């Protein structure tokens, strides 16, 4: 929770709380002064002037309430948007040292989707949690204090009822609703997963049984979802009845207690209606707490997960005293072994591989033979458990990370294209590359067709979705070709290409003066310029 | 308040019943409000003017509590009815939407639209809760309670009643005027968050590449700039949008203040009794309370309106024509005659002739984007030619019932989609209700039975989300088992070995060879190994057949 406060706290959040509390208090004051005004007028004072302060009070509180509410909403939204930016920044800051190792593969995808939900959850922290909680404490406390000036007993009742409505009822509802909430979340997830299954696998379902199996499963999931929502509806009904009913108890208590004082002559008659209506108005202080209570659990869990990211140990770290970057760019793996955390078998074991300056090496082997792992080791996305990886004769672990990566260009197996323009994506490889070079490198990889549509500066769609898988792979390859790196590390650059294109791309790579280490399963397309290393072969 | 899709949603039978229920409950609420406040006014008057002690007035207070409790219960009942109706409406809509998908076919749900469709069915329909569960009961209550309260005040004190009848419509008018602003703001705010979310996810997704190229710090700055720019523009909009709430609040409190002051002054002049004046004062906020609640509910309704639009657009999407004739028995002659298929302006296939005699084995080759996959779509009946026709046993495929035709076709895509259910469920997709023995035999013939037996629960092992525990080759072989278990006349294979290494490819091809016996086979491939299985190779380029190949001539077997 401290994490959340650190993100959202500050003078602006405090201002929102103060404005919110004043809004509630002026509402209660409006009701109280109106009550006093009516009772006062019924006493027929000698002149209307006696009632002037009350009349002014009624008008003042009325206008103040509307203005305060307006200001509070603006400030709350301002703070919310600032928090969004801060949460995002914090997240990127924490994930950067963990990438690329933590963000690739299936577990990377899982992490990304979780992070997105967590960020959405944290966005609501100000409006849904902090401001309502602050307002409840501030306005509720002030209302109890003011009531105590008139009738301490009534103030006691008010305090108890505020606690009941603001704390006990939501807590009990959250407790009772926990099972329904879990059931609803599970049912929602089932419906989403089954819908995705039907949509993504529609050709398979249609050519299978016309979708009957999938629809049957979905009907069951939908019924479970409705049942879970009905369980929640029962709870909602009870909470609503409490929210509407409890203030009535406060009003009756105030009428009884203050009424006794008025009858006894210890309290002025003006204060009976004023106090009763003021008490009624004070319950608005805890109005937002019901939602805050249900938001608290989710926000806390999300904040905890985001915080935990910071505690994850990065797969690789900068050395304390980095050695200067070597002149040569030959890569060597010497007796290298790598086992992923939690994996039963080593991904790479006792591997020796030399990729001299300017060499063209192709890694092959069955799926799971460790081809991509070799690239990860060369990029220093991970460190080997045994042996060492050297660049120009120096162990990668002795070099600054930024330095190593400035010498290497990498194209991932799942091509990474940013939503944006073609030029923007290519310039990730070299930020100052002129348009002519971008055009030339696109032609090299057979993407000259993209220059007409969408063009260098046209929108590629979210995550580059306007490009086909093969085009995305080649954009990623073109980015690597464009970079100033001495070594190109390419993971399946020809996977989505037909034979002619794949031959053309491989020829372009073979003619490149730089060192190339690529992963492929299509050895037939490689000519004599390539040295093929089969990771399955026992001798290696 | 609601127009277009939201109005259409509310005219469904269940929401209409809910409206009636809410109307009746609104009537009850009004009656209980009048009783409750009349008793409070009587109590205050008795204490202040008659000097009585609360002890002698316990009956009045008990009445207040009873009326108040009953009103709270009515509110609870209303919320429950709304939530239940909303849940039922959403389930029915989801089920109806999902049944539309197979009817609309894969063309309607392909590619980028897949994600949008899933969102419409899950989150989109979920947002309709704002319309059915909140806007509808809120609007009905706001339509019933305030007029009744105003009428009551009018009877009690015509001057105060007139004030309510004057300010009420004025507030509503202002609400309507500023309502468009609020709608714009809510849309803008939502878009801002969505865009920021997309920017963040996009950045995180490519973070490995950004880090590898040393760009992570730059993108953090970029993301901060984007967030700041969006914050400024959103706030500018909200400043006007929140005027909506301001007007409502201002109108309500100003009217309460006006009523208090005028009633107070007339009370001072002796034109009114305290009890009546108090009742008027107490009823005045109740005139505005439902309107204020509606302000918040309307916001929820506004969020639901675009969702309702998407939902109904999907429901109204015209279904492609469905044939009714049964698929011919046996292994029919399949023929493409002058087929042209367009996606928008671009012709994916342009006047293609292709003859697929019974038991022939045809390989389709050609560069990426030449139209091979379009041809597969036509054969499966997922697409209908714009010109020319696909003939099955001499009958146009468009006239044949698609379900009956697909039951005769086995389709193995490059990356088969696997159900999250068990291995057996996945095989049975080929023939629902197939006995266990047939499932095992199909697995055995696909060369997968040994692998499956090693799984913890054999054929009953759940595969989980996207079958993470199977390799690419095993996925294809599971799809082959699916094909084995069904009695297919036509076997359509789309890059069956595209993602496999050579050893796995050989095993899959051996299984394919067995599967092909007694059926017509069409295979799309860009690899050389599968060609040996076929008796002719057809080359497609730019949507046209370039080399038709002669039976048995193109590739020596």
UniProtKB/TrEMBL annotation, chain A:
NCBIfam families: CydC. It comes from Geodermatophilus siccatus. Its main location: membrane. InterPro entries: AAA+_ATPase, ABC1_TM_dom, ABC1_TM_sf, ABC_CydC/D, ABC_transporter-like_ATP-bd, ABC_transporter-like_CS, P-loop_NTPase, Type_1_exporter. Residues 331-535 form the ABC transporter domain. One of its GO terms (molecular function) is ABC-type transporter activity. Residues 14-298 form the ABC transmembrane type-1 domain. One of its GO terms (cellular component) is plasma membrane. The chain crosses the membrane at residues 46-68, 129-149, 155-174. Pfam families: ABC_tran (PF00005). It is a multi-pass membrane protein. One of its GO terms (biological process) is glutathione transmembrane transport. It comes from the Bacteria. Keywords: ATP-binding, Membrane, Nucleotide-binding, Transmembrane, Transmembrane helix. CDD domains: ABCC_MRP_Like. The keyword Membrane applies. This is ATP-binding cassette, subfamily C. It is found in: Cell membrane.
From TrEMBL, chain B:
The chain crosses the membrane at residues 18-44, 56-74, 135-156, 162-183, 241-268. Residues 20-295 form the ABC transmembrane type-1 domain. GO terms for molecular function: ABC-type transporter activity; ATP binding; ATP hydrolysis activity. Keywords: ATP-binding, Membrane, Nucleotide-binding, Transmembrane, Transmembrane helix. GO terms for biological process: cysteine transport. Residues 334-557 form the ABC transporter domain. Pfam families: ABC_membrane, ABC_tran. SUPFAM superfamilies: ABC transporter transmembrane region, P-loop containing nucleoside triphosphate hydrolases. It is found in: Cell membrane. Its main location: membrane. It is a multi-pass membrane protein. PROSITE patterns: ABC_TM1F, ABC_TRANSPORTER_1, ABC_TRANSPORTER_2. GO terms for cellular component: plasma membrane. The keyword Phosphoprotein does not apply. This is ATP-binding cassette, subfamily C, CydD.
């Amino acid at each position: 929770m401290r994490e959340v406060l650190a993100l959202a706290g500050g003078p602006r959040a405090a201002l929102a709380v103060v404005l919110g509390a004043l809004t509630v208090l002026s509402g209660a004051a409006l009701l109280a002064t109106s009550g006093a005004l009516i009772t006062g007028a019924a006493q027929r004072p000698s002149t209307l002037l006696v009632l002037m302060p009350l009349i002014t009070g009624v008008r003042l509180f009325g206008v103040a309430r509307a203005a305060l509410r307006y200001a509070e909403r603006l400030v709350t939204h301002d703070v919310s948007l600032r928090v969004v930016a801060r949460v995002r920044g914090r997240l990127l800051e924490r994930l950067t040292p963990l990438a690329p190792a933590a963000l690739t593969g299936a577990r990377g995808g899982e992490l990304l989707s979780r992070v997105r939900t967590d960020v959405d959850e944290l966005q609501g922290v100000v409006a849904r949690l902090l401001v309502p909680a602050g307002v409840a404490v501030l306005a509720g406390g002030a209302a109890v204090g003011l009531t105590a000036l008139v009738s301490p007993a009534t103030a006691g009742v008010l305090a108890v009822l505020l606690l009941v409505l603001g704390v006990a009822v939501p807590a009990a509802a959250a407790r009772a609703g926990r099972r329904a909430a879990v059931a609803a979340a599970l049912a929602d997830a089932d419906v989403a997963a089954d819908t995705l299954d039907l949509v993504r696998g529609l050709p398979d379902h249609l050519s299978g049984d016309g979708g009957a199996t999938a629809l049957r499963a979905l009907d069951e999931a939908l019924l479970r979802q409705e049942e879970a929502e009905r369980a929640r509806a029962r709870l909602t009904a009870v909470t609503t009845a409490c929210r509407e009913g409890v203030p009535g108890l406060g009003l009756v208590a105030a009428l009884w207690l203050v009424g006794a004082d008025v009858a006894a002559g210890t309290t002025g008659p003006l204060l009976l209606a004023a106090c009763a209506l003021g008490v009624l108005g004070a319950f608005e202080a805890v109005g937002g707490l019901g939602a805050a209570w249900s938001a608290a659990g989710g926000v806390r869990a999300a904040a905890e997960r985001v915080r935990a990211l910071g505690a994850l140990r990065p797969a690789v770290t900068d050395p304390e005293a980095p050695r200067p970057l070597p002149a040569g760019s030959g890569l060597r793996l010497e007796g290298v072994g790598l086992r992923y955390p939690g994996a039963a078998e080593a991904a790479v074991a006792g591997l020796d591989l030399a990729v001299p300056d300017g060499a063209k090496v192709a890694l092959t082997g069955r799926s799971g033979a460790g081809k991509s792992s070799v690239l990860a080791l060369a990029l220093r996305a991970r460190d080997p458990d045994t042996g060492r990886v050297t660049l120009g004769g120096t162990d990668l672990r002795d070099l600054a990370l930024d330095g190593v990566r400035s010498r290497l260009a990498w194209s991932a197996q799942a091509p990474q294209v940013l939503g944006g323009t073609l030029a923007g994506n290519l310039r990730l490889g070299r930020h100052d590359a002129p348009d002519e070079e971008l055009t030339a490198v696109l032609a090299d990889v057979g993407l000259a067709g993209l220059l007409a549509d969408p063009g260098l500066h046209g929108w590629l769609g979210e995550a580059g979705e306007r490009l086909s898988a093969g085009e995305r792979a080649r954009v990623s390859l073109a980015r690597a070709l464009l970079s100033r790196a001495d070594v190109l590390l390419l993971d399946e650059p020809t996977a989505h290409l037909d034979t002619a294109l794949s031959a053309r791309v491989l020829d372009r790579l073979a003619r490149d003066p730089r060192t190339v280490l690529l992963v492929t399963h299509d050895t037939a397309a490689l000519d004599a310029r390539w040295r093929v290393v089969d990771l399955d072969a026992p001798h290696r | 308040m609601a127009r277009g899709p939201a109005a259409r949603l509310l005219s469904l039978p269940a929401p209409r019943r809910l409206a009636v229920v809410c109307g009746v409950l609104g009537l009850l609420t009004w009656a209980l409000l009048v009783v409750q406040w009349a008793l409070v006014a009587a109590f205050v008057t008795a204490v202040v003017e008659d000097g009585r002690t609360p002890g002698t007035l316990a009956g009045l207070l008990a009445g207040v509590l009873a009326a108040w409790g009953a009103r709270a219960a009515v509110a609870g009942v209303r919320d429950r009815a709304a939530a239940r109706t909303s849940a039922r409406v959403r389930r029915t809509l989801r089920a109806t939407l999902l049944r539309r998908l197979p009817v609309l076919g894969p063309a309607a749900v392909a590619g980028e639209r897949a994600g949008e469709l899933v969102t419409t069915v899950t989150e989109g329909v979920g947002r309709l809760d704002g319309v059915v569960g909140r806007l509808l009961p809120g609007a009905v209550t706001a339509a019933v309670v305030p007029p009744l309260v105003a009428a009551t005040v009018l009877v009690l004190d015509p001057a105060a009643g007139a004030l309510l009848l004057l300010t009420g419509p004025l507030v509503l008018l202002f609400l309507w005027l500023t309502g468009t602003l609020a709608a714009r703001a809510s849309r803008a705010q939502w878009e801002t968050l969505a865009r920021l979310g997309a920017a963040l996810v996009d950045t995180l997704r490519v973070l490995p590449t950004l880090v590898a190229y040393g760009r992570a710090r730059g993108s953090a700055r970029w993301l901060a700039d984007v967030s700041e720019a969006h914050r400024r523009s959103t706030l500018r909009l909200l400043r006007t949008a929140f005027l909506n709430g301001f007007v409502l609040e201002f109108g309500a409190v100003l009217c309460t203040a006006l009523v208090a002051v005028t009633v107070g002054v007339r009370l001072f002049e002796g034109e009114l009794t305290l009890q009546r004046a108090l009742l008027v004062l107490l009823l005045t906020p109740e005139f505005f309370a439902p309107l204020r609640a509606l302000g918040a509910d309307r916001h929820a309704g506004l969020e639901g309106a675009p969702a309702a639009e998407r939902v109904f657009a999907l429901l109204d999407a015209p279904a492609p024509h469905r044939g009714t004739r049964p698929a011919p028995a046996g292994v029919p002659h399949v023929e493409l005659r002058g087929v042209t298929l367009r996606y928008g302006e671009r012709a994916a296939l342009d006047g293609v002739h292709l003859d697929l005699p019974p038991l022939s084995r045809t390989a389709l080759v050609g560069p990426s984007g030449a139209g091979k996959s379009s041809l597969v779509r036509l054969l499966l009946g997922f697409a209908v030619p714009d010109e020319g026709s696909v003939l099955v046993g001499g009958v146009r495929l468009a006239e044949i019932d698609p379900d009956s035709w697909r039951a005769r076709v086995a389709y193995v895509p490059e990356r088969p989609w696997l159900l999250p259910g068990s291995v057996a469920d996945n095989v049975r997709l080929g023939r629902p209700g197939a006995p266990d023995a047939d499932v095992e035999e199909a697995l055995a013939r696909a060369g997968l039975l040994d692998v499956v037996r090693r799984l913890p629960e054999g054929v009953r092992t759940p595969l989980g989300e996207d079958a993470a525990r199977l390799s690419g080759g095993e996925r294809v072989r599971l799809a082959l088992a699916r094909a084995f278990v069904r009695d297919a006349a036509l076997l359509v294979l789309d890059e069956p070995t595209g993602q496999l290494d050579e050893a796995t490819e050989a095993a899959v091809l051996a299984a394919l060879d067995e599967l092909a016996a007694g059926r017509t086979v069409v295979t799309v491939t860009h690899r050389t190994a599968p060609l040996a299985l076929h008796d002719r190779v057809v080359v497609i380029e730019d949507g046209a057949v370039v080399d038709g190949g002669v039976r048995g001539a193109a590739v020596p077997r």
